[in-house]
Specification:
binds magnesium ion, alpha/beta, Calcium-transporting ATPase, cytoplasmic domain N, 13 strands, 44% helix, binds adenosine-5'-diphosphate
Length: 296
């Protein structure tokens, strides 16, 4: 009866929009007591758009947009796409091309545009290059982050010139999903490479406790967060969508990939939530518990 019940569970999963790698996956789902959620693309839609543009007194807004947009054009990151598309639209002229482009995972991009050495990304990317953010840019950056928008700093030739903000909406179903996961006895945890303030704002909106927010985590360190939770004796499920989440999905006791996400995440996960609806993560846990109690 055991394999049959598992097969039935797998079939029921497909009806719910859950693709299960193998019937044995349902078994690892049973022990899970902690669910780690990626922010961008998992709790939020991941469809970011350019919002505000702040520039220093002596910088030209159009120039900030042109150079930042030119560089971000070469990146696939959701933040980069928002910057490139917004810059092209607002600058009203075609973007110049970039050379010596380099992607700095979890921090941003750098490269050469029209002879300028350009940096676009987190304030930390600039700091690491010895470029400070002046107060006139730090203040709007903080304000935007407190509202849950991601700030993107722009510098060239060693001087910070502007801050752009991009916004991404929390999915309508995310708060409900977190409530359901909690009702199943799971502890929800937020894991993101984004800024602490932005992460706290999103966590508050969906009902994740501040003590369980891990922000500004570099892509290679996401795995360490999972391992630390496991070392505390937790059985960890991870839900993610990005290339950056693949290693964490593979390390978790149970990896759930958003079907709307990248192939790398889907390949690394044990389950795929086909429609990218986080509530289905709760359905998956419920299904596996029900299937396994049928076997017992
Ligand atoms: P997440 O964990 O939220 O999916 P990432 O680890 O990919 O995010 O990136 C972390 C943060 O680094 C982003 O929120 C953004 O602030 C910044 N960042 C990464 N890549 C870029 C880029 N190409 N342009 C601007 N900012 C970037
Ligand atoms: Mg993501």
């Amino acid at each position: 009866a055991t394999p049959t019940a598992l097969m039935v569970g797998t079939g029921r999963g497909a009806q719910l929009g859950i693709l299960i790698k193998g019937p044995e996956v349902l078994e690892s789902t049973r022990r899970v007591d902690t669910v780690v959620l990626d922010k961008t693309g998992t709790i939020t839609t991941g469809r970011m758009t350019l919002q505000e543009v702040y520039v220093t007194e002596d910088a030209d807004e159009k120039q900030v947009l042109r150079l930042a947009g030119a560089l971000e054009h070469a990146s696939e990151h959701p933040v980069a796409r928002a910057v490139a598309a917004g810059a092209e639209e607002r600058a009203g002229v075609p973007l110049p091309s970039a050379s010596a482009f380099e992607n700095v995972p979890g921090l941003g991009v750098r490269g050469t545009v029209e002879g300028h050495e350009v940096l676009v990304g987190r304030a930390r990317l600039l700091e690491e290059a010895g470029v400070a953010l002046p107060d006139e840019l730090a203040a709007p950056k903080t304000r935007a982050e407190e509202d849950g928008r991601t700030a993107v700093a722009v510098a060239w030739d060693g001087v910070a010139r502007g801050v752009l903000t991009v916004a991404d909406a929390v999915k309508e179903t995310s708060a409900e999903a977190v409530r359901e996961l909690r009702a199943l006895g799971l502890t929800p945890v937020l894991l993101t490479g984004d800024n602490r303030t932005v992460a706290a704002s999103v966590a508050r909106r969906v009902g994740i406790d501040d003590a369980f927010v891990h922000a500004e985590v570099l892509p290679q360190d996401k795995v360490e967060v999972i391992k630390r939770l496991q070392a505390e004796g937790r059985a960890v499920a991870m839900v993610g969508d990005g290339v950056n989440d693949a290693a964490a999905l593979a390390t978790a006791d149970l990896g759930l990939a958003m079907g709307t996400g990248t192939d790398a995440a889907i390949e690394a996960g044990d389950l795929t939530l086909v429609r990218g609806d986080l509530r289905v993560a709760a359905d998956a846990i419920r299904l596996s518990r029900k299937t396994l109690s049928t076997i017992k």
